[in-house]
Amino acid sequence: MSEVSRRTHVGRRSFLKMAALGTTAGVIGIGANSLTRQADKSEIAKPYPGSKMVKSICSICSVGCGVIGEVVDGVWVRQEVAQDHPVSAGGHCCKGSDVIDMVRSHCRVKYPMVKQNGKWKRISYEEAFDQIATQLKKYRDKNPEQVMFLGSAKDSNEQSYYISKFAAMFGTNNLDHQARI
Ligand code: SF4
């Protein structure tokens, strides 16, 4: 077979694959054309008619910046900054500007997971607590300095106090804030 004919030659198997792909693309194209349309001006101005604006706060850190949640039938669909919030005064940091993803993100962790043989597996809270407690006890018995406790901006003063007390009880001075590492 010449170089040109080798490049242009399409085997029976390849031809069938391409034909199947073309048919699928055609079907998707027909479906999309009949199912989609351009939004009109009122839909662009108000994409969620009948929605409610609910005042709330960002829960990612203890600052508690103001968030306005747009809600449709109990589902949070969009967010805005709260211009009149006394602390944030219409501002957000990069975390808070997408706090809605704490609720709607497809990759949000909703329950305890453990990795076994390279695969994530769901476990109960009891199992998770047991595993954490077993590991912590193992390290504490051997050498508590192997463990470090990290607080975060999400913790309140009271929670930070508890964490520091727990670290002292555990037997280590390895205690810091997550933003410093
Ligand atoms: S994470 Fe950002 S937006 Fe949320 S409360 Fe803290 S500073 Fe405000």
TrEMBL record:
Pfam families: Molybdop_Fe4S4, Molybdopterin. Gene3D superfamilies: 3.40.50.740, ADC-like domains. Its main location: other. InterPro entries: Mopterin_OxRdtase, Mopterin_OxRdtase_4Fe-4S_dom, TAT_signal, TAT_signal_bac_arc. Residues 51-107 form the 4Fe-4S Mo/W bis-MGD-type domain. Coiled coil: none annotated. Keywords: 4Fe-4S, Iron, Iron-sulfur, Metal-binding, Molybdenum, Oxidoreductase. Belongs to the prokaryotic molybdopterin-containing oxidoreductase family. It is found in: Cell envelope. It comes from Campylobacter majalis. SMART domains: Molybdop_Fe4S4. One of its GO terms (molecular function) is formate dehydrogenase (NAD+) activity. This is Formate dehydrogenase-O major subunit. It comes from the Bacteria.
